[in-house]
Design a protein that fits this description.
Helices cover 69% and strands 0% of the residues. The protein has helices spanning 9-25, 29-36, 40-56, 65-71, 77-94, 99-122.
Amino acid sequence: MPPRIDIERAVIADVVAAFYAKIRIHPVLGPVFAAHVSDWVHHEEKITRFWASAILHERSYDGNPMQIHMQAGDVHTSHFAAWLDIFEETVTEKVPAPQSEAWSLLARRIGRGLSMGVADVRRPSGAVPILR
């Protein structure tokens, strides 16, 4: 199966490292991530495997991002807009178009799904889900 985006794994790792360098100093997202990530090297390797699986169709990632974000407790739907803006900024800095545009679109689609999952877990029992 051809890669979803024509990009090398080393570039994925570079984007992930640059992204988390920005996240660690972000006034809102930094403390949220710091509460859950004690080993940044391990976390960045895991997220590199996630993106390599999503983009290159590697079978190197073993995890459930939806479950992790839903169970975190301090991750809120409002965090996803900032997360995605920083991610898109980083991808645009590190990856030429049209690959950066394709990766940003994929990240936004994944982010929408995660945001909906976080919103759903906090939805009062019996309330109608918000599907946007």
